[in-house]
Amino acid sequence: MAEDPDTFRATMRRVPSPVVVVTAQGPQEARGITIGSFSSVALDPPLVSFNVACEARMLDVMEACQRFAVHVLGEEQAHLAKQFAVPDLTGPEQFEAVPYTRDPDGTPILEGGSAVLRCRPHDSLPAGDHRLYVGLVEEVEQRPDRGAVLYYKSSYRGVGNELRSTRLAPVNRVSSDSS
């Protein structure tokens, strides 16, 4: 039996997730979407993945696009995560007051941030009420490191400080073998 969706959602909010914005040019308009399911998949070839809800307007764009861009947001760009998460905005409304340019394929490339991965669709498959997309990374634009945005406990957060690793003392095999 499947877990209650509310309990599952509440539990998953306890797992920090990287937040990126994916942009693409569709047949009618350019769109963007905030993604909290971004992950690297493979190094050879370089592949990344993310999920898009089946009811999202971005689904039609992803199904039709020839290329898309994954924007690793800097910590000062949490407002963009909020902007591209609003479901009822039109494509032009999404990009209002957002600094961006277009690459030769027409894909919107957001300014700022820590990196942009320019991708070609590689594969997709249904995944419950979402669709899983896998992209082939064709180009990586590293920018000055501006941190990253995470989603944790229903809010956007920065990465924070590095945690020190604590090591447990090794087990004394001689004393444990005699018991």
Question: From the 3D coordinates, which CATH architecture would you assign?
Answer: Roll
General form: globular
Number of strands: 12
The CATH class: Mainly Beta
Q: How would you characterize the overall build of this protein?
A:
With 179 residues, the protein is α+β, with helices and mostly antiparallel strands. The chain has a single domain, classed as Electron Transport, Fmn-binding Protein, Chain A (Pnp Oxidase, Chain A), CATH 2.30.110. Helix content is 17%, strand content 40%. The protein has helices at 5-12, 58-64, 78-83, 91-95, 173-177, and strands at 17-18, 20-25, 30-35, 39-43, 46-53, 68-72, 100-102, 108-110, 115-127, 130-142, 149-152, 155-158. A hairpin with a 5-residue loop joins strand 7 and strand 8.
Layout of SSEs?
Elements: H1 5-12, E1 17-18, E2 20-25, E3 30-35, E4 39-43, E5 46-53, H2 58-64, E6 68-72, H3 78-83, H4 91-95, E7 100-102, E8 108-110, E9 115-127, E10 130-142, E11 149-152, E12 155-158, H5 173-177
Antiparallel strand pairs: 1-11, 2-3, 2-6, 4-5, 5-10, 6-9, 7-8, 9-10, 11-12
